[in-house]
Specification:
The protein is 0% helix and 38% strand. With 110 residues, it is mainly β. Strands 1-2-3-4-5 form a 5-stranded antiparallel β-sheet, with no helix packed on it.
Length: 110
């Protein structure tokens, strides 16, 4: 299995985007910039006299709910285009009432 980051031209950059609100929910943002592959042998040699195609890094922005620690909005942009995933967080769930965990009145062990 190849090592993560093998063939990259440098280590990924991580940028803290801080806190924000998405649909009223507090989220923490992180941006991960992954440089394009730069290892020799992975790309064909350029055609003489032709300009080289620009190398586009892959950028992932992940906004995670501060309360549930689940991703709310993820945007990944790279040479393939852009992929956006938006998960709508629901309202926080209240803990169940303690009466659900009590032995019912009149219960007898047989």
């Amino acid at each position: 299995m190849p090592q993560m980051g093998a063939g990259l031209s440098g280590p990924p950059q991580i940028v803290n985007l801080g806190k924000a609100f998405i649909e009223g929910h507090e989220v923490d943002g992180m941006r991960y910039i992954i440089p394009p592959p730069g290892a020799p042998g992975l790309t064909p040699p350029p055609i003489p006299g032709m300009p080289a195609a620009p190398q586009i890094p892959t950028v992932a922005e992940i906004w995670t709910s501060s309360q549930t620690k689940l991703p709310v909005l993820t945007t990944i942009t790279g040479p393939f285009g852009q992929q956006v995933t938006h998960c709508k967080p629901g309202p926080p769930i209240a803990p169940p009432p303690p009466t659900q965990f009590q032995v019912p009145p009149g219960y007898k062990l047989v």
